[in-house]
Predict the 3D structure of the following.
Amino acid sequence: MNAEPRRVEHLQTDKGSVPVYATGIVEQPWASYSATDHDVWAQLFRRQRAILVGRSDDEFLRTQDAMGMGSTRIPRFDELNRALKKQTGWELIGVEGLLPELTFFEHLANRRFPVTWWIRKRDQLDYLAEPDLFHDLFGHVPLLMNPVFADYMAAYGRGGVKAHAIGPDALVNLTRLYWYTVEFGLIRQPDGLRIYGAGILSSKGESIHCLESAAPNRIGFDLERVMNTRYRIDTFQKTYFVIDSYAQLMDATQPDFEPIYAKLAAVRSFPAGAVQDGDRVIQRGSGEGWLDGGDV
Ligand SMILES: [Fe+2]
């Protein structure tokens, strides 16, 4: 354990913004959070909770309440861990910033979810280049209380360790799965589409855009389709993939991905906004406001 955790953020260089990685596991320095830090958490928490009623998976908000995540102060990892360990065997660990891929996968495979210890500044309420405490804790942690989703996350970590050994192309395919499910996934509920992806849940603008804008495609989840689709890191997503249940996600991770990686290595990847033959189209996007180029 480091005595004084660092705040590791991207660096601005002459080549633009460069991500910086850190591997240390740190104790959450809870006593060192300032009144402003707690207030930033409170503002973000209240704002997102108001937006997410009727937009997020109902279970998500219920679980936040049940595990004691509230607006009054930044939650303590050790308190959340008591609920989490008991329910699904997961544990939050404090980290200083982005982790190298393999380190991240190994944590997930062992049911350890890395949470950035520091929170964004007051002038960054709407956008931040990398994950901070609000994104990680508010967005990702509640669904780790769902036993099926919790198993999916661990299976993803094991898949990541394997993909890392296979090579960079396999990792690209697998990363798209994380992006379009864990970060930007939608789920179908009886009364309509709801949000479960943490990248959306922690973003005011995208929480509304993903459900209410005519611009994006909304397409039924298909593992190979997702693994072959590029995505946006600089704008809202052009396509959202919709699952019917978390069990569907878990089932999709049962087969060995190696034959899929081999198959996808021989085909061109799909642009982020293109609709393909065979897609289960729930809503075809108008494409309004889309920028050309920039898919990663
Ligand atoms: Fe995330």
